[in-house]
Each structure stands twice: as structure tokens, then as C-alpha cells.
Amino acid sequence: MMQIKITNGENLPNIPWQEKPEGLTGAPVWRYTENPVIKRNPVEGVARIFNSAVVPYEGAFIGVFRGEQVNGIPYIYLGRSENGIDWTFDKEKIHFVNEKGEEFEPVYAYDPRLVKIEDVYYIIWCGDFYGASIGLAKTTDFKTFTRLENPFIPFNRNAVLFPRKMNGNFVMMSRPSDSGHTPFGDIFLSESPDMVYWGKHRHVMGKGNEWWDAVKIGGGSAPIETSEGWLLFFHGVTGTCNGLVYSIGGAILDVDNPSIVKYRCENFLLTPQEWYEERGFVGNVCFPCATLQDSDTGRIAIYYGAADTYVAMAFTKVDEVVDYIKTHSKLTESDIELGIR
Ligand code: BMA
């Protein structure tokens, strides 16, 4: 196997970790044996926490969590953990302000991502802007959360930022959609010099030729910079007579021009098979929203929502997963374009 490395230079010796079980066959991603790490009714007033994102913070971990309140409305809660596995949550949901410091709460907020870029933490979620669209906020201290301009007009329900600027611009992946459960969806990217004006839109990748991701796809965790390009964990959706099934897929995007897909794994990396993935508020959903990674060892911990009910974790190593994606790569026609038409 070639030496494949995480190249962002950040070490995380306290990354949550479990070794690969002996005799594991198939994709090089293995589940945490004590899954799910966040169970039902995790905090008063919240029935379920899932599809959530974490980052290392002050020697421990912090995260933004999709909490389904007991009135059914999703919102974002702050959670903290010493080990990345056992989490405690603020009872109060996160309160947002506008740039003048005035209260400015989203109507609802779900599927939050949390990405650090140059010492600022950005939260990206799906909220309401006269229809489902992308919400954006920043914080530096996890006390004040300041909302920024809405990047896109409706409908768009899934967005992830790259963890560094490229050519001086912030880069965001998103998945334009419709107002419902959207029977289509490709990943696009957009750039912004200031987090206000977004443009230079490019197409990244479309739904797959294989069956597991043939209905729609969407960005998952913030891409990880590696010696082979940006490692992207995304969700791929198939349709069945029992509804949609969400699996985790993997792709490598060009490091200088991430609208070009270099490799795209034809097989899923993880698909619902455990009780907490198959059974819940919405069964058969594995929905990745974050990773932690350690440059030194190449270890990667993946956080994913399971069955719209729990948070679960899986592990992999950068060399194994990139090698698997390359070995099983099958690109679609639009993957290799510059994404301009
Ligand atoms: C998507 C989003 C996710 C959810 C998934 C499966 O459209 O709403 O939050 O996990 O559906 O229900």
C-alpha cells in the first residue's frame, strides 16, 4: 500500500479509537462496539439527538447536535465531552444573535456541521428562509453564536464547508433540492471571499450509477486533506418500496480544484445493518456529519446519525480507506468535468 497521509498537519493523540476487529472483511470502516454513543432522551425536552458534528476544543471535544425537541422541531444544542464518546449537553438550545448582537433565532435548524477555519468555528445547518435553505453562524468561544448572511436561496438542505480557504476563498459544498423529501440531488460547490457573497458555482458529483447512491447524494463531514486529495465521506441514498435508505460513501476530490472527483468508491463504506441504524424514528439511515482525525497515525473517527434517532461512531485509517476508494473507484461522466456548463 502506498504511503497515504493526512496532510493538514493536526495531531490529535486523544482521538477516540478502537482497533479494527480481527477478520473484518469488506470495506475498511468498522463500528464502535458500544454504539450508539448518544441514546434516546439525552436531555430534558429532547427526544433524540442525531446528525451532529464535533471538533477538538481546548484539549477535549465540543459539538453542535441536532436535537429533536419534544414538540418535534429540530434545533441545535451544544455538547461537550472529555473523550469524544460520552457527551453532556446544555439544556438550553443554542441562542443565536445577528451581527449587531440582537437575538436572531432560526425557526428550526437541523443537520448542523461544525468546521474550524483560521481560528473561527462555523456552524452550517438547514433552516428556514421562506423555505428550507442553508443557515450559517460563527463563534470563537462557544458562548456567542453570530449568524451570518444566508448563503443561498431556497431550496437547499445540506451544506458543508471545506476546512481551509482555497485561492483566498471559503468553499462550501451544498445540495440544492426541493421543499420535500427530494427525489434527486447532486453535490455542488460555491466560493466566497467573505462569507457573504457566494459564487463561482461548480458541479462536483451527481447521484451514482450504482444502486446504493442512485437517488441522491449529499456532503457528509468536512473533507479531510490527504496526500491523494480531499477525502470526502458523503451520504448516498437509494429508494426501496419501504422508503429511502441512507449509506455512507467515499470519494477523493482534487486538492486544488475540488469540483473534480479523482476517485469515487462504487461500493458503500457503511450501510444500515445494526439495530440502531435500521430501527428508529426513520429506519435505515447512516448519515455522516463529522470526523476527527490524527495526522500522526492516520486514524479517523466518523460520527454519523443512525436512524434519525442516535449518534453512532465508526473508525478507519486514512491509508486503508483511501486505498479502498481508489481500488474500487468508478467515476461517472460528470465527476471528471470542471463542473462548468
Ligand atoms: C434527509 C435529512 C436528514 C435525515 C434524512 C433521513 O432528507 O432530513 O436529516 O437524516 O433525510 O430521514
From TrEMBL:
Keyword Disulfide bond assigned: no
GO molecular function, one term: glycosyltransferase activity
Keywords assigned by UniProt, alphabetized: Glycosyltransferase, Transferase
InterPro entries (alphabetical): Glyco_hydro_beta-prop_sf, Mannoside_phosphorylase
Family, per entry: Belongs to the glycosyl hydrolase 130 family.
Protein name: Glycosylase
Organism of origin: Anaerosacchariphilus polymeriproducens
